[in-house]
Amino acid sequence: MQCPECGSSNTSKNGKQKGKQNHICKECRRQFFDSYSPPAGYSDEFKRECLRMYVNGSSFRAIERVKGVHHTTVITWVKPVGELLPDAYTPETVPEVGELDELETFVGYKKNKIWLWTAVDHFKQGVLGWVSGDHSAQTFKPLWAIVATRQCYFYVTDGWSVYPGFIPEGDQIVSKTYMTRVEGENTRLRHYLARLHRKTLCYSKSVEMLAHSIRLLLH
């Protein structure tokens, strides 16, 4: 890296300002930024590339380090997209067997636990619907309102006490063995969203941002 003032290559990194790497010349003490910066205003392709990185396991700060765009700027790109995307989709055919499960995470601090309730088609990839909140029937209720319209023949669950209050008697199959589809989808969520990784420094600071992130990944 050459100094733009005296042309010396005797330079070193000197922290960051607004997400950009700052350098200092050891000869003339001139401070300067990396010569590369994305186009002013950032192109749509640049934004899409950053969002693709985000839903492929990179945290906001990791994107900042790689792309040179401030992490708060990337956050502002996620929010409007997440607000436009639905929490459920309509399958082309009625699922014969549905699977229901809960994924535990936290927001803000570890004791502030929340659960992602997910519903999937036993025979097809993809999430039919999801909700987030506590581990109670009140949280599951809006998801069941979506799932019940699918009119599945059976529902496979882990036996959590909430389910019998919604699933008709005889329609619930309690079996971890047959929950490979929904557990696979939950694993995908953990794998591709840094905020859901186990044993990580990344975590959700708001329920709203967690929801936007999930919608972005699923769609």
- Bin the helical content: 25-40%
**Largest sheet data:** 5 strands, mixed
| Average of pLDDT | 86
Radius of gyration: 23 Å
Number of domains: 3
Number of strand segments: 8
Structural class: alpha/beta
In terms of per-residue confidence, which ranges show pLDDT below 50 for 5 or more consecutive residues?
Answer: none
**How many helices?**
6
Between the first and last Cα atoms, what is the distance in angstroms? 41 Å
Strand order of the largest sheet: 6-5-4-7-8
Q: What order do the helices and strands follow?
A: EEEHHHEEEHEEHH
Q: Can you characterise this structure?
A:
The protein is α/β, with parallel strands linked by helices and about 220 residues long. The protein has 3 domains: about 1-35; about 40-85; about 95-210. The protein is built from 6 helices and 8 strands. It has helices at about 45-55, 60-65, 70-85, 135-145, 180-190, 205-219; strands at about 10-15, 20-25, 30-35, 95-105, 115-120, 125-135, 155, 170-175. It has a 5-stranded mixed beta sheet, with helices on both faces. A hairpin with a 5-residue loop joins β5 (about 115-120) and β6. α2 (about 60-65) crosses α3 (about 70-85) and α3 packs across α6. The longest helix has 14 residues, at about 70-85. The chain is elongated and about 80 Å long.
